[in-house]
Design a protein that fits this description.
amino-acid transport; MetN_ABC; membrane; six-stranded mixed beta sheet; 14 strands; EC 3.6.3.-; Alpha-Beta Plaits; alpha/beta; Rossmann fold; binds adenosine-5'-triphosphate; four-stranded antiparallel beta sheet
Length: 329
C-alpha cells in the first residue's frame, strides 16, 4: 500500500550548507497494517510525512501510495491522489467556528461531494468514532480526546486508503491515549484502512502497531513485524519495546554471567515453562522476567544467571531448542 524506495531529501541552507533530512529511506507498509514509525527529534519523521503526502518532492527515490507514484503525478492527479491519504494531527486542528458535523464535512465539501450526500457520510463517521450525538457541538465544547475523535472522523470521511497519524496521542493523557489507539485499531478492522503512526512514544507502538520502523538520520535502521522485532534481543527497538529485566551487578555471584532470553509465543516455539526447565537443566537461574502481549504476539524477557564456565553450553542448548538468547555484555 505504501512503498518508499531509496528516498533522499536534501535541503540547501542559505549559507550553502546542505541537510540530508532523508538519506536513502526505504519502507514498505502492506495494506491493512498499522505501522509505527519511531525516531528521535531530527530523524526525519516530518519530512517523511511531507514526502508521503507530496507536500514536498523527494530529491531522489520513489514514493508510492495506493499504487500511485506521487512524484510522477500532474497537479490535478496529485489532488486526487492526496484524497487517498487521511491525516490525523497531534492537535486535532478543528475549525473552532464550525460544528463537529461541519468539521467532518469539510474535506467532502473540498472534494466536491454534493451537500445532500454529505450528511449521511458525516453521521456515519461520527457514529464510527462514538460521537453520533455530538454533531451540533462546537470544538470548545469537546474534551481533547473527543476533538481527536472528530479529527479521525474528518480524516476518514473521504474514504482514504491510508490514515496517516502524526503524533496522534502526544497531547493526550494515558487513559485517553488508550481509547484513541483502540479507536484507530477498530477503524482499521472495520474499514480495512492502512494506518501509519508517526510517534516518539514506544508505548503507542506497544499498544497498537502490527509492525514498526526505527528512523535514524533520515534512514530506516530497523524494521519489521512487532513479533519479529521483539524476538531479536540484539535490536534497539526490541530493547525499547520490551526492556530486559535489570540485574544489578552486586546481586551476581562473582563468577556468574547474565543471559538475556527473548520469547515470543508462536506455534512451535518453546513456551516459557519449557525454557525455564531447560535453563534449570543447564544450571541457570531466573534473575528477572517480564511477560506481556503486544498486538497479537505474546512476548517475554528473561534474565538468567549462570556460572561463566557453563554459559556457552547453556546458550548452545537454549539455541538448539529454538530460543533467542545472548550473553549480556
Ligand atoms: N525546510 C527545511 N529546511 C532545512 N532543513 C530542514 C527543513 N525541514 C527539515 N530540515 C532538517 O531535516 C532534518 C529532519 O527534520 P524533521 O523535521 O523531518 O525531523 P523530525 O524527526 O520530524 O523531528 P521532530 O521530531 O523534532 O519534529 C533536521 O535536521 C531538520 O533540521
Amino acid at each position: 500500500m505504501i512503498s518508499l524506495r531509496d528516498v533522499h531529501k536534501v535541503y540547501q541552507l542559505r549559507n550553502g550548507a546542505t541537510v540530508r533530512a532523508l538519506d536513502g529511506l526505504s519502507l514498505e507498509v502492506p495494506a491493512g497494517a498499522i505501522h509505527g514509525v519511531v525516531g528521535t527529534s531530527g530523524a526525519g519523521k516530518s519530512t517523511l510525512v511531507r514526502c508521503l503526502t507530496a507536500l514536498e518532492r523527494p530529491t531522489s527515490g520513489q514514493v508510492r501510495v495506493a499504487g500511485q507514484d506521487m512524484a510522477a503525478l500532474s497537479p490535478g492527479e496529485l489532488r486526487k491522489a492526496r484524497r487517498a491519504i487521511g491525516m490525523v494531527f497531534q492537535h486535532a486542528n478543528l475549525l473552532d467556528s464550525r460544528t463537529t458535523a461541519q468539521n467532518v464535512a469539510y474535506p467532502l465539501a473540498l472534494a466536491g461531494v454534493p451537500r445532500g450526500s454529505r450528511h449521511e457520510t458525516v453521521q456515519r463517521m461520527l457514529d464510527l468514532v462514538g460521537l453520533g450525538d455530538r454533531g451540533d457541538s462546537y470544538p470548545a465544547q469537546l474534551s481533547g480526546g473527543q476533538k481527536q475523535r472528530v479529527g479521525i472522523a474528518r480524516a476518514l470521511a473521504d474514504q482514504p486508503a491510508v490514515l496517516l497519524c502524526d503524533e496522534p496521542t502526544s497531547a493526550l493523557d494515558p487513559e485517553t491515549t488508550r481509547s484513541i489507539l483502540e479507536l484507530i485499531r477498530d477503524v482499521r478492522d472495520r474499514l480495512g484502512v492502512t494506518v501509519v503512526i508517526i510517534t516518539h512514544e514506544m508505548s503507542v507502538v506497544r499498544q497498537v502497531c502490527d509492525s514498526v520502523s526505527l528512523l535514524e538520520a533520515g534512514r530506516v535502521v530497523e524494521s519489521g513485524p512487532i513479533e519479529q522485532v521483539v524476538s531479536d534481543v540484539s535490536s534497539r527497538l526490541s530493547h525499547e519495546l520490551v526492556p530486559v529485566p535489570e540485574v544489578p551487578r552486586a546481586s551476581l555471584a562473582p563468577n556468574d554471567v547474565v543471559l538475556d532470553v527473548a520469547l515470543t509465543a508462536h506455534p512451535g516455539q518453546p513456551a516459557a515453562a519449557h525454557v525455564m526447565s531447560l535453563a534449570a537443566e543447564q544450571g541457570a537461574d531466573v534473575a528477572g522476567g517480564v511477560f506481556e502481549t503486544l498486538g497479537s504476539a505474546q512476548v517475554g524477557r528473561l534474565a538468567l544467571t549462570v556460572p561463566a564456565s557453563r554459559s556457552s553450553a547453556a546458550v548452545a542448548a537454549l539455541r538448539e531448542a529454538g530460543v533467542t538468547v545472548e550473553e549480556r555484555a
